[in-house]
Amino acid sequence: MFGQNEKLKKEIDSLNNQSYEKKIETSGSNIQKYLNNLSAAKKINYPMGIAESYANLSMIYYYKGEYDTGVDYFLKAVDKYKELGEYGKAGGLYGLYGYRFRRQNIPKAIEYMKIGIRMAEKAGAEDELRSLYDNYGVVLEDKGDYDSAFYYYYKSLDMKRKTNDEVGIPYSLNKIAALKSILGDYKGAKVIFDEAYQRRLKLNDKVGIAENLSFYGTFYEMQKDYDNALKYFSEALEVSKEAGYNWLTSNIYNSLAENSKEKNDYKNAFVYLKEHMAYKDSIYNMESTVNRNQLEVQFETNEKEKKILEQRADLAEQRLEIEHKNRFLYGLGFLALLIALTGFMIYRTQKFKNEQLKRENLLKDSLIKVEAENKVQQERLRISRDLHDNIGSQLTFIISSLDNLKFKLQKDNPDAVVRLEEINQFTRNTINELRDTIWAMSKENISFSDLRIRINNFIENAKSAASDIDFKTEISSAIEESHKFSAFEGINLYRLIQEAVNNAVKHSDASEISVKFDKSGDKFRITVSDNGKGIPAEKIGTGNGLDNMKNRILDLGGSLDIDSAPGEGTRLNFSF
Question: Do 298 and 386 share a domain, yes or no?
Answer without folding.
Answer: yes
